[in-house]
Amino acid sequence: MNARHEPQLPCTFVIFGATGNLSSNKLLPALYHLEAAARLSESLSIIAFSRRPWGDDEWRSHMREVLAGKIKDGTDTPVFSRFLARFSYQQGDLNDAASYQALASRLPPPEACSSTVFYLAIKPSEFAAVIHNLEAVGLNRPRGQNRVVLEKPFGEDVESAHTLNQLLHQHFDEEQIFRIDHFLGKETVQNLLVFRFANTLIEPLWNRNFIDHVQITVAESIGIENRADYYDRAGALRDMLQNHLMQLLTVVAMEPPAAFEADALHDEKVKVLRSIRPIAKRAVHAHAIRAQYARGTIDGRAVPAYQQEEGVEPNSITETFVAAKFYIDNWRWRGVPFYLRTGKRMERQTSMIAIRFRLPPQQLFRETPLESIDPNWILLSIQPDESMRMEIYVKQPGLDMDTRLMQMLASYLKTDEQPLDAYETLLLDVIEGDRSLFLRFDEIEWAWRVVDPILKHWAVEREYIPTYPAGSWGPADANRLFDSDDQAWRNEL
Ligand code: BG6
User: Fold this and answer.
1) Does the beta carbon of 220 lie inside 6 Å of ligand 1?
2) How far is the CA of 312 from the centre of ligand 1 (A)?
3) Which is catalytic among the residues 182, 244, 266, 287?
4) pLDDT confidence of 342, banded at 50, 70, 90?
């Protein structure tokens, strides 16, 4: 996307937590694919920072190993060799000042290099130490140039998000800070903006007069993998709903921005978040449901209960599923429920936004064999495939007045095109200094405010959490969120 300012291309990219999950699964493959697409400047070097007592050679064999099954074309190519050659390894401890001295001494001096990117692919509890330590060795300068990238969750509630933001602002200018929510880099999410604002067909219908309700589902079949020490403290509400799902909600609900640029987009998203009706203390039960997976079967394979996962407290009541209902009290959306749900170890991986339209005002075909017409849906699939479907009824050819459901399918990709991973888009934006798809602090703050009543309520109700079998669509109780009997979760495209 286009930025307003001139990008200052960085010459060094530092990955803190280089041997961790995020780095191995997302960052390294995405950087490689940028290399393969010739989008990394020749002079960019990458420093992998981690605790393991390695040198460059060990790091490079580690890269070969972790990337083997994850990149197009494999690791025996000239592109891969070029990619490997960009890397060097810095052994260090995130809490140890001397490690940052050592890091600083490897970086080119500011007069030789316009900027450095520091990517914090680490646990949120380690952010503060890194920010302090970078400042202590002067790596927060040049101000306005060196960049720091933070993964979500940004804080664990409104107060801690504020504290983290204050700390960042003590040492970095706002344009140096990239708060990432990788869902905003997903093709369907960006496409939603184009779909809504580049087509005159859609926008007139996109409001309370025509839309009955909106569902946002992010179902994952994976469990918590080996992230228990983070996840058991966070839970699904903090890990997914406050950020990824809330961002999807804002993109569905926002007004057209004045211009397609970072601040104008952020302004509209914040307006949506501010218009969400606060959930009263006594209404939390009616608006939010949590549950945890019990053992079950996924793809024919038995999987353990959450409490049996390695590193999870045996009596943990952390939620691995959350469903919630929100209302946006503005002219466009008043009275339209937005149902959000996400969970781990669900039947299969499906992420989609499903928009259900109202029934036609007149049931013209009631007296015919066709008793009633089901409502129309627009389905925006985010994962595993990226597509947009419109569900409409047509008459079946023949003598009777029978209908048939037809899906108009628009797959975004042409047959010769490859899907992009969100991180490819976002890492390129970081390198080019474009912050449109990154979060401004007030978006994060308002999203915390929206979920705050739920967090507070759950924090005191700590005796019990209902369960759902792994491999299911979550607890049946999630159906009680619906405002009317003809609404139900949509699991299929
Ligand atoms: C991360 C969450 O932000 O998003 C994970 O911490 C989750 O728990 C992941 O699995 C899902 O992202 P994606 O892009 O793999 O669907």
Assistant:
1) yes
2) 19
3) 244
4) very high
| Tokens representing residue 210 in the block | 């025509």
Q: Are residues 127 and 50 in the same domain?
A: yes
Is the CB of 239 inside a 6 Å radius of any atom of ligand 1? yes
Residue 480 to residue 462: CA distance in whole angstroms: 21
Residue 225: which region, alpha, beta or left (left: phi > 0; alpha: psi -120 to 50)? Answer: left
> Distance, CA 456 to ligand 1 centroid (Å)?
24
Whether 271 and 393 share a structural domain: yes
pLDDT, average across residues 104-111: 86
Radius of gyration of the chain (CA): 24
Give residue 69's pLDDT band: very low, low, confident or very high (50, 70, 90). confident
Ligand 1, atom 4: nearest CA belongs to which residue? 240
Number of the ligand 1 atom closest to the C-alpha atom of 218:
16
Q: Domain of 70?
A: 12-151
Tell me, yes or no, whether 252 and 322 share the same domain.
Answer: yes
Contacts of 210 (CB under 8 A, 6+ apart): 357, 358
Instruction: Tally the domains of the chain.
Output: 2
| Nearest atom, ligand 1, residue 220 CA | 10
How far from each other are the two terminal CA atoms of the chain, in whole angstroms? Answer: 29
Q: How confident is the model at residue 370 (pLDDT cuts 50, 70, 90)?
A: very low
Q: Is the pTM of this model over 0.85?
A: yes
Clarify whether 182 is annotated catalytic.
no
Contacts of 353 (CB under 8 A, 6+ apart): 188, 192, 214, 215, 216, 248, 252, 379, 380, 382
pLDDT tens by residue, 10-23: 899 999 999 999 99
